[in-house]
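Holo prediction. Input below; ligand is zinc ion.
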Amino acid sequence: MEYIEFLGTGGTRTPTQGTTCLRVSDHCVIDAGNLINTFGDDVFTIEHIFLTHSHLDHIIDIPFLADLFVTQKSISLKIYGLKATLDDLRQFIFNHRVWPNFEEIALIGHTNKTIELIELDLEKPYAVDGITLTPFKTDHTEGSCGYMIEKNNSAILFTADTYKCSRIWELIDEHPRIHTLIIEVSFPSGFAQLAFDSKHLTPALLKEELAQSKRSDFTISAMHLKALFKETIVDELNTLHLLRNGGKILSDGDRTNYTQP
Ligand SMILES: [Zn+2]
Ligand SMILES: [Zn+2]
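Structure of the complex:
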């Protein structure tokens, strides 16, 4: 694939919008907020899921995927994340209480387990399925990270959920090949305290953050808007001219090319 497809872009689930889910190559996705409804019968082609953190809107389809895969696949579904994120999956989801422990349950007729949890190291590049993913620490949960997503010497920076985070702007300045920033903006600027408490960004916080970058040549697109406040957030982003260089509010089904035209 020569593009990233945004399968889920919402900050919450609505009847018409899924939550965070990016298809970054034929067999690899980042987060699992909207796989079942978008992949259809192709869902069995998914081999790798890189997680940004363990919040429900980012992992919600993983249990259902494991349930489908156990009788149909011969190789384990590989799920990658920082240690705290994988610990959460083991403790709170695949614990034989909320859901069967598919990390121990073998694929029917095979010795491979249904899922395999693989711990990531921060700032280390992982080459998978023709792309490279490099996790960087964000300020959201203990195990939260964003990813630099690279193909053919072009890079896109995806923050997923985060509060203010200097590493975003350092990476953009360090790597001129980053041509697009996909950042979250969850609440209107008037909800600064809620944004701090829940570790999310507002348009006003994004404007403050942007002052840290020396570059102004990259595209900025936004996602993870809380549906109830979408109109206000869009107005504020436009008034503050934050969707730079052709950026937009991402909707489910949008695509971004790895190589900028
Ligand atoms: Zn979150
Ligand atoms: Zn989220």
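The helical segments are 36-39, 56-59, 62-69, 83-93, 166-174, 192-198, 203-210, 230-239. That is the main takeaway for now.
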